[in-house]
Amino acid sequence: MAQTKIQLLISGLIFLVVFLGAFSAYMFAQNQALASNVSALSGKVDQLSAGGSGESKAATRTFSIILVMFGMEEEEARHRWISSSIMVKRGDTVVLEITNTDDDAVHGFGIAEYGINEMIQPGETVTIKFVADKAGFFIFYCTRPGCAPDHAQQVGQLIVL
Ligand SMILES: [Cu+2]
């Protein structure tokens, strides 16, 4: 009886060791895949701006970001940043030309980690220039609470590789 329990315990332990081994191998492979995806993306950003040279040099990258309104009534209107996702390389100089197409409300544009907080009047375009010296994933958002009922959904992302 005692022997059966010990046998059961040992086979349980063996199973656990094999399972953990397989799991770590799987996680390691996932990590490698992610790392190679990031470096492939990084190369893509270079190609896009340098016309296919693939060289890794800091560049100036300009983007248009337009706050677009969907829906007729202000109460139901949905505001979205288009483009809502921009990607650069660390060290790049980023120029954002941001337009507020909402005729009725002032909106703002902020990226907390980069100390950016600009007010944009209805119909106005504001240009922001900064060096993307921090790598990571940053949310950009409207900085004018109360601009519209969907204020909290006025978000996008800056990815710095
Ligand atoms: Cu807003």
What features would you describe in this structure?
The chain folds into two domains: 1-52; 60-160, Immunoglobulin-like (Sandwich), CATH 2.60.40.420. It has 161 residues and is α/β, with parallel strands linked by helices. The strands form three sheets. It has a four-stranded mixed β-sheet with strand order 2-1-4-7, with no helix packed on it. A three-stranded mixed β-sheet has the order 3-9-8, with no helix packed on it. Strands 5-6 form a two-stranded antiparallel sheet. The chain is elongated and about 80 Å long. It is built from one helix and nine strands; from the N terminus they run H-E-E-E-E-E-E-E-E-E. The site of copper (II) ion (CU) has 8 residues, from loops.
Q: Which features does this protein show?
A:
161 residues, alpha/beta, Immunoglobulin-like, 2 domains, 9 strands, 30% helix, elongated, binds copper (II) ion
